[in-house]
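Quick check before the chapter quiz. The format below is the same one you will see on the exam, so make sure you can read both the input and the output lines.
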Amino acid sequence: PWWHGGGRVEWRAAAGQDDQRAKVRRLQEWGYAAEWIDARQLLELEPDIDPAAVGDAPIAWYPDDGWLDPVVYAHAMMSAARRLGARLRT
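Here is the expected output.
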């Protein structure tokens, strides 16, 4: 319940686009799922994004990424530790 997959999109202002291109290239070289998508694909994934906010920036898509809820994650990890006999001290 703490992990929420579904991918992640990323775009940057002009000043950060060279770094973003290098990052995507590096991740692809490592075999990590990273690709470029266009504005139409972005809106299919995230229909509530205002295209004006993106402008003509390149859009990276990381289909295997997601986010975690830190409170639920911490609780799950502490519960697992207790089940395995750990004593937690706060």
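If your answer matched, good. The first strand starts at residue 3 and ends at 4.
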